[in-house]
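@here heads up, posting the sequence + SMILES for the zinc ion run so it's all in one place. Ping me if the SMILES looks off, I pulled it from an old spreadsheet.
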Amino acid sequence: MEKASPGYVAASGPSHKPRRTRLGALAGVIWPQRSLITGREVAGPGALEPEHWSKLHFLSDPLCACCGVPLDLAVEEDQLCGACLVRRPVYNRARAALAYGDVSRELVLALKYQGRRDSLDLLARWMATAGAELLRDADVIVPVPLHYFRLVRRGFNQSVWLAAAVARKSSAEICVDALKRIRATPIQGGLSAEGRRRNVQAAFRVRRGQKARITDKKILLVDDVLTTGATAEACSLALKRAGAQCVDVLTLARVARPRTVPI
Ligand SMILES: [Zn+2]
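bot reply: prediction finished. Complex structure tokens:
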């Protein structure tokens, strides 16, 4: 059975046609909606062609109650995956909207390297759906920071954009500069789980001036992708050392295979 794609409404059929104001219709003519994958004009409310929608894998239960990896079968409530049974991550819970695959990778790249801000509301809606429980519990939303040099080179931090878009769908406050990346770590692609962990160890710190906003608070850390979880764990450690009551993690996409069991 096909899974429902949150936020997407089939463009065919009069009952599904979105209500558009005259101003909205005019904006659509001047700035036509373009596919987030191909850049071609697309009709309807979803900024993706139907063939790409069908290839998106939205994550849903059963999931590991802790790291959020999809499980084949859950026989009890709050079931954990094998890796979390052996070693609980530093963060409390992680959730993601999408399994990281070809199409979700293109969405992340469009955001990260083309700065496609027009995707933000849609992506944040998916994230808010996947992380509804986490958002409900959160006091403060914190994005994963970029190192200063990378921020200057890219000109923006896509995790800040996602965090701000998610915060607009929640009552939690956002603290965009709670964390500081104190080491410019090499690009993580191609590194093993252990290599990634070593790469980001001690790379983050809570800014002294923001500590009061973190201490005793429930934090929701936001990033674009969760792969091994090494970055999320390093950030969570810094936040917990600054007195955070708990740290949950919400990402747009995650690698859907289980964390490596360290035995
Ligand atoms: Zn797990």
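MO: The two ends are 36 Å apart (CA to CA).
MO: One more: Residues 179 and 206 are 4 Å apart (CA to CA).
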